[in-house]
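Many introductory courses stop at the sequence. We go one step further.
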Amino acid sequence: MEYQSKYLAPDIKISSYEDKLFKTEIVFDHHMLIWFMAGETKIVQADTCYTFRSGDIFLVPRNQLATIINYPTGNQPHRTVVMHLSTTRLREFYDGLNLKTSAAGPGRIRSFRNHPLLTSCFASLLPYFELNELPETIASIKITEAISILRLIDSGIDSVLNNFELPRKINLVEFMERNYMFNMPIERFGYLTGRSLTTFKRDFKRAFDTSPQKWLTQKRLELAHTYFTEKKLKPTDVCFEAGFENLSHFSYAFKKHFGYAPSDLSGNSAVI
């Protein structure tokens, strides 16, 4: 895989993936406003799956688990322009408005399709990528413009952007049952449930009577089996959406657990 990322400013970049497919699990530390230029992306959250294509614009909230799968289309690489809406910059923006901190909004991805105002804001950045230079003053103006447009076209956006709380200690069982398919470090699961690593492991053992890794593997294998039998998905899609790193490891673990290979369910002998 060839990945290229060019930063115009610390919070503005253009990204390109040349390979056929790239998949990662991620939790962003900042809100990410993304303009899709080419390719296709599937983003899987706990109970929702989104597909974005050329021209789409969407906001991925911070501190939300997601699986991101990037696909180039045709002979074009997967290309996006990304704005990081950092907590520092958002605090400065909302301090100027003298608004109260909003209650936490839903952690869902917000899609704006190809809204003309946002499209114009992003497109105005492209000449600067050609020049390889964007003064910080202009970068700040462009991000402020994007935030202002979001507030104009989405009446509920303040509940997302004007909330600066860190993850609180939440119900561990409910969170894990909703998010076990995301292949994240155990430390990250702990952070998102408001716990230190030590406390997370202790609470997990008390709740599930096993280790986090054993429980996660079993849950992901059971989910994979459901995807094969009920959704008739391909092995590659099942592997990634169920939270496994690669097809070889998934096939090995699946056969060890169930006693037969994924190909026996999918009808595809070329599983690995």
